[in-house]
Amino acid sequence: MHLVLERRTEQSRTIALVSPLIAIGLTLVTMSILVAILGTNPISALGVYFIDPLTDGYSLQEIAVKATPLVMIAIGLSLCYLANAWNIGAEGQFLIGAVAGSWLAVKTHGTDAGPWVLPAMLLLGAAGGALYSLIPAICKVRFAASEILTSLMLVYVADLVLDYLVRGPWRDPAGFNFPTTAAFDPVATVPVLIEAGRLHLGAVIALVVVAAGMVLLGKTIKGFEIRVVGAAPRAARFGGFNSNQLVLLTFAISGALAGLAGIIEVAGPVGNLRPGISPGYGFTAIIVAFLGRLNPVGILIAGLFLALTFIGGEQAQIAMKIPLDVTKVFQGILLFYVLACDSLILYRFRLIFASPKVSRGAA
Amino acid sequence: MPDSTPAVPHGDPKPLLQTIGLTKRYGDFLANDRIDLDVWPRQIHALLGENGAGKSTLVKAIYGLIQPSDGEMRWQGDTMVLSGPSEARSRGIGMVFQHFSLFDNLTVAENVALGLDGSESFKDMSARLEEVSRVYGLPLDPRREVWQLSVGERQRIEIVRALMQNPKFLILDEPTAVLTPQEADQLFTVLDRLKAEGRAILYISHKLEEVKRLCDTATILRLGKKVSTCNPRKETAASLARLMVGGEIKEVKVAANRKTTVPRLVVNDLSLEPGDPHGVRLQHISFELKGGEILGIAGVAGNGQDELFAALSGEWLAPDPGMIVIDGIAAGQLSITRRRQLGAAFVPEERLGHGTAPRMKLSENALLTGHAASNMVQHGFVKTAAMLKTVDRATEAFDVRKANRDPEAASLSGGNLQKFIVGREILRNPAVLVVSQPTWGVDAGAAAVIRQALLDLAAGGAAVLVTSQDLDELAEITDRIAVMFHGHLSEPVATQGASREKLGLLMGGSSLEQEEPAHASGA
């Protein structure tokens, strides 16, 4: 008896939906073992991680706040990945977007600039992220440089640019030498949706992005081009689709969305520009994109789930002294299982009972 | 039904190789269903069948590449269970594959050494290689790198590599598919000699005339089952074809009074550097193709046909716009989309991954080439209903068999997918159709449908360009034939009256390149 992996004639739609759930299940089992090794009761740890945040209003809002950048970035990344363009640098595009938009907030700080400031900041943020993402895209198209490496390395450049600005030219003079800009003026701040809450307009924008992603991929010729160029590059060329142009386009869109998420984050929940504005949203969004099957609705659900792990991780650290790094381990294991389970969409396991030995005697 | 009393010229008590009830299952699919086969020494045994009949599966089992699910193999009368190809080789079973496994950047000798067990020194091996190739009349220079060699020479490497292990039993998978008629004749001489030495040969083919000429016995497979074992010399090509297909094959009908009109596709002195380093440079290609006419391009694979297709389709742009003229418009630098809008349509050789995106639905694959000039796209939005309608029309017009209305392209059989692709293009009512290997790997029924469709399209006034390695196919449907060799295209000749010998010589490059080096002109 042996186990073989057999190619399916057609992709299994059921497995495409179930595979992320299998991956989550396997991740939970692995995490339980890990938590048990750390000396904590796995059942109560999982409760703190995944159940407790869902039981009070503050945490629910906080999940939505964390999910907002994750979903926006992941929608953009999904376009890249569908087009076989590997943008790993959304974290850097997020930071540059935050920097580009913050420039206007810093320049108009203390003036009587009108309500045009916030929309202009959002545009600047998106433009900054898009331009920044075009660096690796152009290097790929023009010089065949691996976009995986260049986009990733530009994350660290962005990080240092931000660091320099808030420690140098943009530092708040009245800020006791802390490396931050001054708190943004009200006209430069993303409004909250609920009085005294944390949920802000960005969550609505994220939903609009999800809807736009659905329309783009499902209903437009551009979306079709993106999918074909990734799924069958030669057929895409035969169809007359320009893969280089699509690499630039998908990188620009994903950079713009990451930049938009960045400026919304600093003009919203954070309130000013400072180091450490992202707990790795740009990287976690990669997991969100794949857990969501590169599908906009799937990404929305996956974004909420990954946000839950951030909130749960914080609570587990406070309540059970589980290190926050365990959350990152969790996210990494999850991505591993998601990619592994994806092979079940194209392949299936089959148990072979009969051994291939001779079964007839002399005839 | 032919009787199973083959004319076997043997005095041996036992078959060299025997399969008894050999069965191979893939999931629920029976690729081989209880196949009995006897191959004797001193026999050239043909294995006949359409694509998908189970020929490859059977020989893979005999060569140890796959394990049978059921049944028995016997070697010289004793039960044989193979752990892999190396065990098969050590027993004396050799195989020459249809698709070569050679490293382009290594020399002939290095490639052969990689296929052997390495028990002798490279120098001894090289000497033996030269000896074997000389003795059997398969001339090879061990020091040449493979990328410089013709397809026929590459096949010689594979044959010599197999012969160097002194096999008792040699399997050849469609060996003449890539050869000119003259090269095929040379191969047959070698095979007759191997037979005279007492070896057995299992010869896979679907070319009936050559099987009749070469083979002593033929076993015919259909849909995984053995339908007959017979003496091919006592059969006619038609009776063998009936056994293979399981019915009569529809003859294609050529419209009697087809008129040619104005030139619709003109190529003027097209020269083009290849995109990849081992590609073929197109050199001074010129021809004129009128409406109502079918022009065939013959030639051994790898002589620039792929490059010519890319240049005509616009996947690779010509250096000058006037080099390619579609319906009077200089199109050499237009994109494939613009050329489609001018009324051109293209069917590439590779169905999966080039002509279609394998894991996308048929409707999406209709959009792939239909987006340029149809009602499938409006203001950037796709119209699913129009895409599905194209699928339905192609399905009906070309009898495409599929599991549901809109399955993934990869789930269709080769013949049905090819019918869909050809149908997709013909339904656009093209002015010019460029089609590469239209019936490659397609069952006989589908091939007849496709050939008829090409004839009907030309009868309707379109210009059709067909590239094929199958001379019989070109003879059946074309008006004129030109031959491609080393990036040159010969002057087209009228199909009626063009002899196979002459075309074969052109395919070997004889009248085109006088300075052809001596090694390639054969033994």
Automatic annotation (TrEMBL), chain A:
Record keywords, A-Z? Cell membrane, Membrane, Transmembrane, Transmembrane helix
Q: Which GO terms describe its molecular function?
A: transmembrane transporter activity
Q: Where are the transmembrane segments?
A: 21-51, 63-82, 94-110, 116-135, 147-166, 199-217, 246-268, 280-308, 329-349
Membrane topology field: Multi-pass membrane protein
* Ribonucleoprotein is among the record's keywords: no
Question: Which domain of life, per UniProt?
Answer: Bacteria
Location(s) in or outside the cell: Cell membrane
Q: What is this protein called?
A: ABC transporter permease
Q: Known Pfam families for this protein?
A: BPD_transp_2
Keyword set includes Magnesium: no
Organism listed in the record: Bradyrhizobium archetypum
Q: Which InterPro entries match?
A: ABC_transp_permease
Q: Which GO terms describe its cellular component?
A: plasma membrane
UniProtKB/TrEMBL annotation, chain B:
Q: Where is the ABC transporter domain?
A: 17-248, 265-511
What GO MF annotations does this protein's record show? ATP binding; ATP hydrolysis activity
InterPro entries named among the record's database cross-references: AAA+_ATPase (IPR003593), ABC_carbohydrate_import_ATPase (IPR050107), ABC_transporter-like_ATP-bd (IPR003439), ABC_transporter-like_CS (IPR017871), P-loop_NTPase (IPR027417)
Q: Which PROSITE patterns match?
A: ABC_TRANSPORTER_1, ABC_TRANSPORTER_2
Supply the SMART domains for this chain: AAA
Keyword annotations for this protein, in alphabetical order, are:
ATP-binding, Nucleotide-binding
A Pfam family found in this protein is: ABC_tran
Q: Give the family, as the similarity comment puts it.
A: Belongs to the ABC transporter superfamily.
Tell me, in a sentence or two, what this protein's role is.
Involved in beta-(1-->2)glucan export. Transmembrane domains (TMD) form a pore in the inner membrane and the ATP-binding domain (NBD) is responsible for energy generation.
**Protein name, UniProt field:** ABC transporter ATP-binding protein
Organism of derivation: Bradyrhizobium archetypum
